[in-house]
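Sample pair:
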Amino acid sequence: MKLIVPLDSGWSLDHDGRPLPAQVPGCVHTDLLAAGLIPDPFIGSAELEVDWVGRRAWTYARDVTAEETAADERHERTDLVFDGLDTAARITLGGRELGRTRNMHRAYRFDVTGLSGPLDVEFASAYEEAEAVRRVTGDRPNVYPAPSQYIRKMACSFGWDWGPTVVTAGMWRPVRLERWSTARLARVRPLVTVGADGSGRVELRIDVERTARGAERALTVRAGVAGVTVTGEVEGDGTTLVLEVPDVRLWWPRGYGEQPLYEVELTLFDGDSALDGWERRVGFRSVELDRAPDEHGTGFTFVVNGVRVFVRGVNWIPDDVLPSRVTPERYRTRLRQTAEANADLVRVWGGGIYEDEAFYDACDELGLMVWQDFLFACSTYPEEQPLRGEVEAEARENVARLMPHPSLVVWNGNNENLWGFRDWGWEEELAGDSWGEGYYLVLLPRIVAELDPTRPYMAGSPWSGSWDHHPNHPDHGTHHSWDVWNRVDFTEYRADVPRFVAEFGWQAPPALATLRRALPGEELAPDSPGMLHHQKAEDGNGKLRRGLARHFAVPEGDFDRWHYLTQVVQARAVATGIEHWRSHRPRCAGTIVWQINDCWPVSSWSAIDGDGRLKPLYHELRRLYADRLLTLQPGPDGPVLVLDNQSSTAWSCEVTLRLMHADGTEAARVPLEVTAPAREVLRLPVPARAVPVAGSAKEYLVADADGLRALHFEARDREFAYPEPRFDIAVESVGGSRDTVDVVVTAHTLVRDLLLQPDRLASDAHTDRGLVTLLPGETTRIRVHGAPGCGANAIRAALFCVEPA
């Protein structure tokens, strides 16, 4: 049987002739940090101080003994396997060059049988490698100044509008020796389908590599799943086994059913001797994209197991700009948080990486569908060598690697490059040069059709489906809604109904404790040096200020108030978009918020900041993405009551509509008995007696049903006649715990968007809710974990709400 010997110890990193202890998997930055030779690039402006690290060459070394690679009776051959080399590397063993690599997103295997001595992995500067390729292919336009499109490396390591420039190098995934004889399983691709009769089918397409001794051997394979076993002979270098499983349980996205997973085991035999094995979990489900034209344009609806799904999604970026630091536990934490925000899809964005198996395993278990971008983003990509061969090899490897996962529901060719070609001046600048179109419209769909025909492919996002329509046309295919954040007020999300909103979002700063850790000693202000350095978006602070000023008086000189209000605006902006688009199902078939996570402490569009703290937006997503959403939408004849029921059962309830005066008195109350059918939207006009006077600054509408609340204000906050907020607080222990308390808030006036910022009590504290609006006489409980001994005064100082202008 194959023997695996991890090579995760004994490595050193050469630092100007001085060997430093090296961690594998890891990277140069993590090793230099561990040695105390560079500052943390996440703190202050230290990112600039470590820029030199990515601009020079580095060498890793360890010894390999003759005993580790020698051929013997049981192990005819020894391979040296790198699961990930970042990025341009030359590998030598005992002074003999094994090979050179230039792709972070591939694995590499070298025959080292009988070789021994010093194993050196020499990494060239990614900048130098990219510039060398640019000299061969010619220059191409890019949204960012760094040459990221000339090297197959995580593009955002060169910097993005939410990320630092930290250009890594190193063995970022495991390294091992594999010792084997006769033959090994080189690649296994499970095509998993469901029959009309409810049976499951696993078609295992198996590639085998043989040694010289094994070239003529009669090999067999045996596979099993769910009690079904089949055996077959291997002819030449491959074979196919088919397992038919009756009455399988279907894998469903979360909210639609359960996520049963089946273990598939495959063994390669030489006679009675097992040579190699392969195990994966699969799930039985069907997935397609309905892109049929209709009266509104061209649709874009996911259909899973025959059920049309309104996607409640989030965009995912690498969770750390040093990706080797992201552990399986960290993946699981972040994805569990995503599921608990009621999301059902995660889009792996094209400027990052193909994530670790632990990411997709967690998505399989949690019922989170995965939209997987191929790794092209916001740039034009040459289609000449040496890049074209790398792109094809990378795509083939990762399609085969990821296709066992039932959570993976779509392959996407690129992020924004088709749009950029049409709108960002690229077509004129390119003057006929290649730019990636051949990848997205020819190469990648051909690879997916050949290797993974069970899943749909789309050329890019946004993409209208063909050049007959603008690539980002809201009526056709996927749409990225960025004009709102960049140019106008968030209420303009209501101006149209895209068929599928694959990106939209609004910025806010991270939690205060995150800022204090990242900017130690700095007197925080929106434009203080550290705040500006940790704001990477073009005119990001200007857009934050303008978005704030449209609704609130800008609190000059009061950072805490600015910090709170920008968090409120972020939550309100995203809520405005999702509530509007959900109310127009099925014409709109999904939203994917930009973004769930951050890769460092930064002002950004994320719902979870770079230190893992939850912004108010996160809690708002839990409401917005719940199966049942109650909202009040502006209409030409007054507000419209909307009940969006994405659950599998009818929603019957009493809705109480109240017309309220700003001073807390009730002007009208209207109870309505309503039923929203399963998976449908119910829209009802608000009765005239409950409608505020148009433009009123002293009236507002409240709708309550089943513990859900919706609000409608005719005036913006800075124009509304808010009373001075008055409320009482009490602190109650929970179950005798010192670490968990309930903060009980009782309102005496309208208290809008009350927020307890737990990190102001203790850096690791967290709460069970975000923004809460209370009417006079109402009480809410906010559970606080991780703030032992906090008293009423500290809690009051951590509470914020909207105040009169």
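The chain is about 20% helix and 30% strand.
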